[in-house]
Amino acid sequence: MNILNRKSHRYLAFKITLLIFLTTLLVPVLAFVFTGIEDSRAVAAEVYDDLALKAVRNNYNLYQGGKAVDGAYGFGAYDAYVLTQAGANLNTWVYDGTSFKDNVLNLIATTIANKDTENASSAKRVAYEYITAKRWGVEANTLTELLNILKAKQLASGDGSFDQNPYSDMSAFEALGRAGVIGEIDTAGAIAYILGEQDDATGKWCDFLSTAQAVRALTYLKNYSGDQAADVQSAIDKGVNWIQNQQQEDGSFTVSSVWGEFTFWDDKVIDTAEAIITLDLLGIDPATWISEASKSPVDYMKEKALNQDGTFGDYGTSLDNTMALETYLILGGNVAEDTALGISVNPSGAEIIVGDEQQYTAKVCKFDGNEEDVSQLTDWSIDNTDVATVNNSGLVTGVGVGDTVVTATYQSVSGSANVSVTGSVGNSGNNNQQGIIVPIKVIGKNKEILFEGDVTLKESKEWGVTAMGALHATGLSYTEDGGFVNSIAGQANSGMSGWMYKVNNSVPSVLASDKTVNEGDRIIWWYSTDPNSSGPAWDSLVKGNSATDNPAILEEYNNQVTDLQNKIAGGEITPSDAVEETIKIMNNVKNELASPETSVTEAGKTVRDLMEKIIASLIENKNATAVQAAAVLKPVVNDGVKIVLARPDGVDVAGELKNSLASQVRDIITKAGTISSAQLKVFGSDSTTTVSLPANILEQQLEQLSRAQRELSDILSGDRLQEIAVLARTPVQQLEVDLAGVAGQKANTELVVADDVARNLRESELKLAVRVSDGFTIVLSGTERADRQTVFTGHKPVMLAARDTDGLLDLIASGLFSQNEPASSAAEGYVLSVSQLDSAKADKLVRDANANSSSHLTLRPVGKAYTVTVKDLINKEVVNSLAEPLELEMSCRGLTEDPEITGIYRYQDGKFTYVGAKPDKTREMISAKTITGGTFTLLEYDKQFTDLAGHWAEKDIRVLSARHIVSGATPATFAPGQTATRAQCAALLVRALGIPKSNAGHTFTDVSQSAWYAGDVAAAVKAGIIKGTSAGTFSPDKGISRAELAVMISRVLESKTGREVSDLNKVLAKYTDAGQIPDWAKEWIALAVESGIVNGRTADTIVPKGMVNRAEVAVIIGRLLEHIE
């Protein structure tokens, strides 16, 4: 393929991929000339000073908040260059023990170390690091190495470029020009390349940023243009003219790009900054570029660049801050050396008792790097004066039990610290200093009593006065991890089975280490095989007896099961023979299972062990099919499960037995829908393993899936197993490709999807789930628009490509590469790299979760964390956003006892951001969609509100809080009895349904566009949830009635499920006040009542005009989600 064809091919990819467009929004552009524009500098210098300071403080706060210096998502050398130009001392910007400057120097070292590897930095990054290193006076050897990297890139390209990517190349050329070393490269090749990339018709390059950069690069190259001087000047003039034509009425600059039905706009601050930087280099006063509304770019940067929340631009990123800062410096802004950047309050948190005092101090970090104690100069304040007070020197006094925050403010910057006030020791109800006595029993795996007796707990002892402290006091050996018990007396957790505890016959929702107990509380620890079990009753446990009879009678059969399991695992027996062996075992054991001489507990355990051992072995066996696993399950169910459940005492083990059976059914269905490595065609070169999905694989897999489901449905017939039979009949929505078996074969593994396979997948509306590991899956939907996707398992990449010779496929590929072209040459698209977080980083994640927890919020990581990085395959730049979301699935099986409060979170810079939580109870998976990469983990979010303890709505609110649908009135309280407003309900529904806020969609005269709920109301109107009044108003601050809420809820229910009320009059007949329901609301209220979402206030009243409180709204929304999810 010649260079011209490669160039056309690349441009086509750029035009059809939104991710490339989004990447350009974040491409930093360098300009280093702070000269010229004398007219604009003289205007409003104080305004520019203030704006420049705000930009610096924004970036300082981002860094102190943990934003990484990584040259990708976080800060890079460009930010450091501009901050240094402004006068910042980056040696004193320290976070987590490392300065901003040292972090950038580490980036430079990494660039040099990786220059000849697949992780080599882009030309843009190399050039930015060069000019930054030169600005800092870094040793000459480092500068030479960086410049040589760029020279080698240009020589290798063969067309005068560095990366054959104008988005990166223009930045590099411009940076070298400003650094005064552009003459060190092949200038003739550079000029030819830049001129060749310009659109002759419009004068633009790829986008606004590359156009501005190209104009400046050519300006630096004019001295080397020779007989091409006229062509260079003409290109500059065309580019400048195109830039000017993009000016908006408010004086700013921006351009749009269209993707399908969506239109996306550049960040105005970044584009406007680029225009001003370019005009500065050309010696043109930007104040002379006036829009039709008589506004210049200078006006825009002075009046509109700063947002109300203190951020800059449309996205408020660090790049917005940096570009704004550089522009204000050009316009004459200045940041004074002694200006305060940030303030730290010490200690960061303290616990005191009522009446006690704690001295806090405040230290300010200044722009020039100096620090100063300003404790006596700052303004001190306290959030809740009912908890504590603070004087003008930072002395805090506890006045009431609770948590609050103390804040110090100096020169418009603030810092804060936590204050926790407890009751005095003398007022402690538990008298924990003297100790308390609690009875405790510990029940082992075989229902044997490991410990029974009273123990004494003291605050000063290990784990204090908690349920964990009680376990410690028994003297039994145990292991734990962050307060989570892994084993007791050598009996370790395994799969869904493990240790649980209860206090006073209630299973708490917190870790045992966080569960405070009182004098006389009864504590039971027991080994559970059912996470939903409420555990044994206190009085049923008699010391000296176990809960099982002598199991010797079944020992022979258990040994046979273990022997069969080992044979299957070792490949010593075929799957068909395993079916016959299972039938023999069940024929021999079924009479023992039915015998009253065998305890029902032991009978149930025998059947569970048989199912779990043999089925699990077949599931893991690559040579066994799902249909064969179902064939094994059949005699186990007929001669085992059904016999035990039919016993008079079968109800005692029904829960555990059915849960185990359901788990096996789910596993068989999953196997039936999984394309295993044994079904793949494998071939390739020394370095790459190519894996192909055969053309007929989809039909084969669907047939196996259908057959397995039919077999399971027949096996599970009967009244006692109907709820499990439903699992077998539930339609499967996706197929899986298991890459675990092939990913380790070679350094690179490539999966090629035949065109008919991908097309059939799309037509059947199924999804393709790529299983990276047992706990992490990436789901690709039929709307993905990348030509190639690469999934890395550990450090070994697994390439995914797709072929479509007809140009009809948009599942994974968009048909940009030809039928005869090898998959490895189809290089456009993006790369997904997936890796499990290493142990050190995982440990830090746990520590950060603890640090983000509080007395009212517990964050507990669940399972493993995975890092997903999305990069452009051409220039290896990180892609900040994808056109279509990726769906992430993470397994919660056996990891959490509280899946309802568990969600997927993005972990970055020590903080956790909620991504989503769509639970799949059948598969025990939690999924969420994301358009960005990052590190993802499952996290239990357990919010405890002090005014909800024992409240009827406590559980519902806890779940909705974990899904970030509802929040408290304060950090510690929910105010459940407070009347909810119409605006609040609209916002909650929009949030619960995941509907994006809208800037338009309503004409209510009483909803201001600046109101916090304006976007929610507009979205709710657009979705048909609310309609307002006949007078064209919404009454957002008015309390919402039961009738109004029911109407909102039912509209959602109808649109999502199509459900309608069966008999309006019959449903409402039981309510004596049904006549008070407005005609417009009757049908909707009846639907909500019939669906079980809304109940009457009493058995015979609906009270339609009654106001709804916050607790009622939360519970009703929770019930709605159960119906539609």
From TrEMBL:
Lineage top rank: taxon: Bacteria
Domain SLH: 940-999, 1000-1063, 1068-1125
UniProt keywords, alphabetically: Repeat
Signal peptide range in chain numbering: none
Keyword Transmembrane listed: no
Gene3D superfamilies: 1.50.10.20, 2.170.130.30, 2.60.40.1080
InterPro entries documented for this protein: Big_2, Cell_Envelope_Struct_Comp, Invasin/intimin_cell_adhesion, SLH_dom, Terpenoid_cyclase/PrenylTrfase, Transcobalamin-like_C
Name of the protein in its database record: S-layer homology domain-containing protein
Organism: Desulfoscipio geothermicus DSM 3669
